[in-house]
Design brief:
Elements: H1 6-33, H2 40-65, E1 83-84, E2 93-94, H3 101-111, H4 129-147, H5 184-198, H6 216-225, H7 250-272, H8 276-298, E3 302-303, E4 306-307, H9 322-336, H10 341-348
Antiparallel strand pairs: 1-2, 3-4
Helix pairs in contact: 1-2, 1-4, 2-5, 2-6, 3-6, 4-5, 7-8, 7-9, 8-10, 9-10
């Protein structure tokens, strides 16, 4: 059924946020398993992850602009693994597995697969993300004409300052960045960035007009065909769970998951709009100074005949202040794992008020 009401449009935009965010942990897990994190293979996957975060931000901007509320503070957007890519047909099972040609070919290429020329819009169950976003575009045009959707776009709460996003290696500046969604034209611009970076236009290889950046699909294709060699890959366990790790490894896994939960609270802080610059600083500090080092450290810890990896599980802080809680947890972990000392330093530098656990829903 076509998206015919504003309420349905908002629901579909929330689905889009969930879809974009659900791809990130499998991509990151594959990246973290690569021994050399500065290799072209690892950086190629990182370039996709950075843009998936951008896509979630652009959809959240659009959701705010049409009167919706992004819900990063609760656990509503946090996926679990193994699990299915929401609403995709045929079903695509998302798993946390080490980098391999099989993982890229059987899962990542399916997620990023370009639509065929003339493929119809698909709003509920979709074969490609391009077809899903086509349906959103049609709904935006119809509903804006009928209801003047963008009367109060709440730009002050959007993640829209272009200085808050910069392309990394293998990405190009002119493939798109943050956009303030204020009207129909800027809404379409945001969607086009998402589609062009992910799958391109039909069989188009490029995500940018100057042909400097491959689409996500063709980046993963390079990893499949050996154009970009994987190098040494650590033999991480499939679909890890903290409870299945040896006792000595579990606190490190908890530290990663607490940091992962903190990341969502930083996103919530950005979209509350109180101190966006501070929340942006917290977001990037958590990604680079907490999640990345803890995740890669996990891949050095033995689990039977393999090594551990980040489980991306929901972590609950209970009634505790989240930042105080994770700092205590980090102190305990660092006592047994001193190599993670810099993580404690990073956590001590975070601003508490940008990470409040305020939820937008009951």
């Amino acid at each position: 059924m076509a998206i015919q009401t504003i309420a349905s449009l908002r629901e579909h935009l929330e689905l889009a946020i969930q879809v974009e965010l659900s791809t990130i942990p499998p991509y990151l897990y594959a990246m973290y398993s690569i021994d050399n994190q500065m290799s072209d293979a690892a950086l190629l996957i990182r370039s996709v992850v950075v843009e998936e975060m951008l896509h979630a931000a652009l959809v959240a901007n659009l959701l705010l602009a049409v009167g919706g509320e992004p819900d990063f503070a609760s656990t509503a957007y946090i996926p679990s693994y193994p699990g299915y890519l929401p609403h995709h047909k045929p079903p695509v099972l998302l798993e946390l597995k080490k980098a391999s040609v099989d993982q890229f070919r059987e899962t990542f290429l399916v997620i990023e697969r370009p639509e065929e020329l003339g493929a119809p819009p698909e709003e509920d169950e979709f074969e490609t993300l391009g077809q899903f976003y086509q349906a959103v575009e049609i709904a935006l045009e119809l509903l804006d004409r009928e209801h003047d959707l963008f009367t109060n776009p709440r730009v002050e709460r959007q993640m829209a300052d272009p200085n808050w996003y910069a392309p990394v290696r293998f990405d190009a500046e002119d493939s798109g960045g943050l956009v303030a969604v204020t009207d129909f034209a800027s809404a379409i611009e945001a969607i086009e960035i998402i589609v062009h970076q992910g799958e391109g236009l039909s069989d188009e290889l490029w995500a940018d007009p100057s042909h400097q950046e491959l689409t996500h699909y063709h980046k993963f294709l390079q990893l499949c065909d050996g154009t970009t060699p994987l190098g040494t890959v650590r033999d991480t366990v499939d679909n890890p769970a903290t409870s299945g790790f040896p006792e000595a490894v579990q606190p490190v896994s908890n530290l990663f998951n607490a940091g992962y939960r903190l990341l969502y609270l930083a996103l919530a802080g950005i979209y509350r709009g109180d101190d966006q610059a501070g929340a942006i600083g917290s977001l990037y500090s958590i990604m680079s100074g907490v999640l990345s080092p803890v995740a890669h450290y996990l891949t050095t810890l033995p689990v039977d005949d393999k090594v551990a990896g980040p489980s991306f599980e929901v972590y609950e802080f209970g009634d505790d202040n989240p930042l105080a809680h994770i700092r205590r947890l980090a102190d305990e972990v660092i006592m047994a794992h001193p190599a993670l000392g810099p993580v404690g330093v990073m956590l001590n530098g975070l601003d508490d008020h940008t990470l409040e656990p305020t939820t937008s829903r009951t």
